[in-house]
Design a protein that fits this description.
By secondary structure, the chain is mostly helical. About 65% of the residues lie in helices and about 0% in strands. The protein is built from 12 helices and 2 strands; from the N terminus they run ααααααββαααααα. A two-stranded antiparallel sheet has the order 1-2. It is elongated, with a radius of gyration of 30 Å. The N and C termini lie far apart (about 80 Å).
């Protein structure tokens, strides 16, 4: 650095000033580069997240309204069934099912249940094109409701104690893969069959959905009946789904909810422990305050982890 010391003070100052300017220019360029890179990455991430959330909402909205309507129709039938189960309107045999203008109650019951499954399937499949981990919390809760309602009819461990004498009996639940066959039966040219189209098809050949007819017509008003335990437990859950997402006229107030539990369901539901674990496994237990209180079931830290029949 002797050469630098030997320079005129003015020259030294000029060199130092130039060096500082160059350093600051390089530093500024580096800062700008890193900032633009970070901002671009941040902007792209925000845009991706926003687009995913928007597309998820738009896709769910397409099936949400018809699903709620199907839930409403099924809810009305289950209310009626809770009053009229002992009249045997749901017990038509195969020949009666295929007789025109006969067996309306059973046919309409099956139609409402399968229409519900149809829209459940649409709602569930709506999310698979997107990164659902980025969905709003409200959409995530909605899909939990959707998946739980489907799982009610596929969860064999819900009724494990009731079928302990014959654990291989598969007539009390549906395998998830089989639901797709039911849904295909209910569809024509990409649209859900009307009830008239459905009855005409049933009267010609109902074998692809024969197990659904058997499921409904075998339900007995008996606390030891696995199907009845499932259907009435599901009904309670369905009412809470409509209370959360339906319009006011589709909802059930607390008194009416209490009355049906107290007068019809409370003594007939013997799968309370399994129901609690099932709701816990489906990550929806916190939404089920009414069910827990009305059935007097308490949370249990040592819950089992069920395996859906696939």
């Amino acid at each position: 650095m002797e050469w630098f010391k030997g320079l005129n003070v003015g020259v030294q100052a000029a060199i130092i000033s130039a060096a500082v300017s160059i350093f600051l220019y390089i530093l500024g360029a580096l800062v700008n580069w890193f900032r633009e890179k970070y901002m671009l990455s941040y902007k792209l991430k925000k845009e991706y997240t926003f687009n995913q959330k928007m597309h998820i909402k738009e896709r769910l909205a397409k099936s949400k309204t018809p699903l709620i309507k199907a839930a409403e129709d099924l809810n009305y039938r289950l209310w009626d069934f809770s009053v009229n189960i002992d009249k045997g309107w749901h017990r038509n045999n195969d020949q009666e099912i295929q007789t025109p203008f006969y067996g309306y109650y059973l046919k309409s019951f099956v139609y409402r249940l399968l229409s519900f499954f149809y829209w459940i399937d649409k709602a569930e499949n709506d999310i698979y094109d997107f990164d659902f981990s980025l969905a709003d919390k409200s959409d995530q809760v909605y899909v939990k409701y959707v998946k739980t309602m489907e799982n009610f009819f596929c969860e064999k461990l819900l009724i494990k104690d009731l079928i302990a004498d014959n654990p291989e009996d598969s007539s009390h639940h549906f395998y998830k893969n089989v639901l797709s066959y039911f849904i295909s039966y209910m569809e024509n040219d990409g649209r859900l069959l009307t009830f008239d189209q459905f009855t005409s098809k049933v009267e010609n050949d109902f074998s692809p959905i024969g197990s659904v007819f058997s499921y409904i017509r075998e339900i007995q008003n008996n606390k030891d009946d696995p199907k009845y335990n499932i259907i009435i437990s599901f009904h309670l859950f369905l009412m809470l789904f409509l209370n959360k997402y339906g319009l006011d006229y589709q909802q059930t107030d607390r008194k009416k909810f209490h009355d049906i539990v107290e007068k019809k369901y409370k003594d007939k539901i013997v799968i309370k422990k399994e129901l609690l674990s099932f709701l816990e496994q489906n990550k929806i237990l916190n939404e089920m305050t009414w069910i827990r209180k009305e059935l007097n079931i308490k949370t249990n830290r040592n819950s089992f982890f069920a395996t859906i029949n696939k």
